[in-house]
Amino acid sequence: MRYSPYIDPYINRILKNEVEHCKEQEQMIQNIVIPVLERDDVIINNERIEEGLSLQKYFPYKLIEWEIFLFALIVGVLTTDGDIFFSDIRIIVGRGSGKNGFISFLCFYFLSPYHGITGYNVDLLANSEDQAKTSFNDVYEIIDDPVDPEYRRALKANYYHTKEIIKGIETKSVLRFNTSSKRGKDSKRTGCVIYDEKHEYLDDTNIGTLKSGLGKVPHAREITITTDGHVRGGVLDREKEQNKKILSEYNPDNRTLVFWCRIEAESEWNQIDKLVKAIPSLNDFKSLRTTILKEIREMPYTPDYYQAYMAKRCNYPVGNQEVEVATWEDIQAATKDYDFSFTSRECVGGVDYSMTNDFTGVCLLFKQGEGYVVLHHTFVCRQSRDLRGIVAPLAEWERKGDLTFIDDVEIPAETVANWFAEQIRRYNLRLKKIGIDKFRYGYLNKAFKAIGYDAFEIKNIRIIRPSDIMQAAPLINSAFINQKIAWGKTPIMAWMTNNVKKVIEGGNVRYDKQDPHYRKTDTFMAFVNCMVLEEELEGQQADLGMLQKMKAYTF
């Protein structure tokens, strides 16, 4: 291969199997890079690449082979009419690869005279301010405290820096950092958006807002650089599905570069020479190799770290069967369309009401053959202190009708009771019993009596105790692993379920939140209360093979 001295070495090392790599690396080279470089309407500007790489002298580290390869493709591969070819760059590498160092170098270059585009503003987006400022602070330190005092004058002449912005003086380009909680992202003249740790995002609202500022300056780019993570059904999961398609075959209309590194089997987790598949810098950083070998040796004594290790070091997320309620695949199996009529059915209900000024979940459970259909809703108090820290598209779920915001100091008990009354009227339901946690029954009692449900006189409310949940846990587990649950195209329920962890103490099982504040579980717990009452339901034969006819749905 002789395309460019900055691109060829990495291509050759992969195609000649000189380094361990995953199939996605070969697919990138065979189905994206080589076909693009062979095009008649594409050129490689090596001078532009060389100028950019000369800026390494200002950094306390040098780019390594995979970073030089990517830098060359990002800045040096152009169309014959002068545009960049790759406008969307997606980099998924394991923790320890040096991703923030690479981001910092890209930002420094984009502000520089060598890049040369006036007003080429760069926006860093991450889920937390600390993460968003990591690369920003790196660039700040490069300018504020040069590796060589002789560079101080040149840096001062070309960069202006404060704790809030860094500016390229000649190009008037600005580097800014953004988080999911910040406002004021609209109407920015953005040249490049860099998404750091995208695996944490369920909601792409802020991504969309920043993207809308692209296109006002030349060479607009989106760059994702992330590890994998534990959030399922989010932005990164959706992109990973797209990435598989992009990598599978050459598409002349594709302008997305996918650089994806991961191990290829869970059994490779403790094979240090295989981990370079996920961490392409592993052979370049001796201290990193030592650190990972130590993590491998200590894993039997730190089993709680295994799940994070697999997701972030290995880019190979695995569930923790000891604590997960259901695998992500089984949760997705429940989140599908179904063919089912609620009219004149019998059912049981459940409520979970952790705090009156937070979230409340309500559910109805129907038996259908060997499976279960779940009708549910979530109420959210706008006064909840946790709202600003929740990374989920609540407004979108409200528009879908799966969630209702309550503009009050708390969620009234009447609102909860009336939801059940409305479903009974709408579908002519036979609601046999409702399960309610003992802690909240006193608050809900009067409202439920008003619609004919009471724990002591009529006895059609059951106060759910921890021992009841413990007994229902095997039934819930069986329903998930046999994929006999259907709650419809409602990603809020998948989100809630994925936020739950099983806690096993002395052989007993209880359900708890994976995060006490920002990962809500209320509607799942309402479903659990329904499952406690499952024996109240009479089996009904499935009509039209409902469970078999559920339509696949990916959100």
The proportion of residues forming helix, as a percent range, comes to 25-40%
Give the total of domains: 3
Q: In the CATH classification, which architecture of the largest domain applies?
A: 3-Layer(aba) Sandwich
Query: Helices and strands: which structural class?
Result: alpha/beta
Number of strands: 19
Ranges where pLDDT stays below 50 over 5 or more residues in a row are 181-187, 540-555
The CATH homologous superfamily of the largest domain is named P-loop containing nucleotide triphosphate hydrolases
Topology:
Elements: H1 8-15, H2 23-37, E1 42-44, H3 46-53, H4 65-76, E2 77-79, E3 88-92, H5 99-110, E4 121-126, H6 129-144, H7 152-158, E5 159-161, E6 166-168, E7 173-179, E8 190-196, H8 205-211, E9 221-226, H9 235-248, E10 256-260, H10 286-298, H11 306-313, H12 328-334, E11 346-353, E12 359-368, E13 371-381, H13 394-400, E14 403-406, H14 413-427, E15 430-437, H15 438-450, E16 461-464, H16 466-481, E17 485-486, H17 491-498, E18 500-505, E19 508-513, H18 522-532
Parallel strand pairs: 3-9, 3-10, 4-7, 4-8, 8-9, 11-15, 13-14, 13-17, 15-16
Antiparallel strand pairs: 1-2, 5-6, 6-7, 11-12, 12-13, 18-19
